[in-house]
Amino acid sequence: MSSTLVVHHLRVSQSESIVWLCEELGIDYKLVCHDRDQQTLLAPDAYKELSPLKTAPVIEDVDTYTPNHDHIRLAESQACIEWICRKHGQGRLLNKPWDSNWKEWLFW
């Protein structure tokens, strides 16, 4: 079964944690790597078009929770982490506010 999850990885960025998360969960995903400009170290224009924030990380997926199975695109680390853990990881690696290390988990 092929995954619907696509991780857009901008090298040397916060998207490192999303790739790491997917590997820790052992889930299937498609990795699309984007290289920074060698001179400016900025993200390429194609990457910036993925998110209105023009930041990393960005993931794309099919929202199987909606009747039409809408295509979604998420930016921001915490949103991506929550989505991946809940949808693809069956809640694994998520902490609750009452867990003793919740604050550290949020910082990660």
Explain the layout of strands and helices.
Elements lengths: L5 E5 L4 H11 L4 E5 L10 H4 L9 E6 L6 E6 L1 H12 L13 H6 L1
Parallel strand pairs: 1-2
Antiparallel strand pairs: 1-3, 3-4
Question: Which range does the strand content fall in?
Answer: 15-25%
Q: Which series of helices and strands comes N to C?
A: EHEHEEHH
Summarize the main sheet: 4 strands, mixed
Structural class: alpha+beta
Form type:
globular
Mind telling me the C-alpha Rg? Answer: 15 Å
Poorly predicted sequence stretches spanning 5 or more consecutive residues: none
The fourth-level CATH homologous superfamily is Glutaredoxin
What's the average pLDDT? 89
Q: Which percent range fits the helix content? A: 25-40%
Task: Give the structure's gist in a few sentences.
With 108 residues, the chain is α+β, with helices and mostly antiparallel strands. Helices cover 31% and strands 20% of the residues. Belongs to the GST superfamily.
Which structural traits does this protein have?
alpha+beta, Glutaredoxin
Describe this protein's structure.
This protein is α+β, with helices and mostly antiparallel strands and 108 residues long. The chain has one domain: Glutaredoxin (3-Layer(aba) Sandwich). Helix content is 31%, strand content 20%. The protein contains 4 helices and 4 strands. The protein has helices spanning 15-25, 45-48, 77-88, 102-107; strands at 6-10, 30-34, 58-63, 70-75. Helix 1 (15-25) runs parallel beside helix 3. It is globular and about 45 Å long. The termini are far apart. The model has no long low-confidence stretch (mean pLDDT 89).
